[in-house]
Amino acid sequence: MKTYFISDLHLTPSRPDITECFFTFMKNEAVEADALYVLGDLFEFWIGDDDTSDFAKSIRQAFIDLVAQGVPCYFTQGNRDFLVGNRFAKQTGVKLLDEVEVIDIYGQKAVVLHGDTLCTEDVKYLAFREKVHQPWLQWVFNRIPFFIKKKIVSKVQSDIKDDKQTKSLDIMDVTQSEVEKVMKDNQADLMIHGHTHRPNVHRFTNAENQEQTRVVLGDWYTQGSVLVVTPDGFELQSRKFSNRFHN
Ligand code: LP5
Ligand code: MN
User: Fold this and answer.
1) In a 3-state reduction of DSSP, which class is residue 217?
2) pTM attached to this predicted model
């Protein structure tokens, strides 16, 4: 019995090493799982569910195959794939989760989320997030032809590219008081998230003197990163990329 959690793969056609590692994981490992949770930033950027490229089709197919084999798949939007929507869910059989979701894993309550909303000191990002999450704006954007949306995204990306360099690492990490608030609001002693690319298990005692655990998932930049949860516990593991992509 095991459940997998992954996030921050940043899948893109220009990184076939990551994509292959993901496909191998889906075919050989996820297929044995009780469930798979993708906690955001599966894609480097997702322009819309109308993406008909071979690349997008191949990723959708990986989920279709997994769901067809009886493995429930859950997906939380990240800051790079906040435009994954109901059409993607319908086409693949993946279930879209809310921004913050409470789940039960082998009797343990856990709050799961992408993690960007925990970084409350990154006020510039949060203001940007609020803008692009406006339902009316997404409604309009989703109706623009794909090739034009692609150009808009590239323009916004290049406009804001340098902004991240000016931020301190502290600003881009989670705010502890926000972590504790979200855990308290959801009455969970375990939190699982990604986004910060700082894989770790943080154990701490909250203001009510309760033992709490926050598990941060790793990214897939230099290796695959997987959280494996069993009824006996959990472990952050890595998966190697195939040698054939490296000299
Ligand atoms: O993922 P990572 O770690 O690299 O960076 C994130 C934050 N960056 C982002 C940016 C997105 O990936 C790029 C999005 C392009 C979107 C195009 C949208 C098209 C319109 C869609 C309409 C429905 O998420 C980064 C964080 C970092 O995580 C750590 O938490 O710091 O945040 C930024 O760098 C954002 C800047 O600070 C914000 C700059 C404001 C610019 C305002 C432009 C307004 C454009 C409005 C578009 C309609
Ligand atoms: Mn992210």
Assistant:
1) coil
2) 0.97
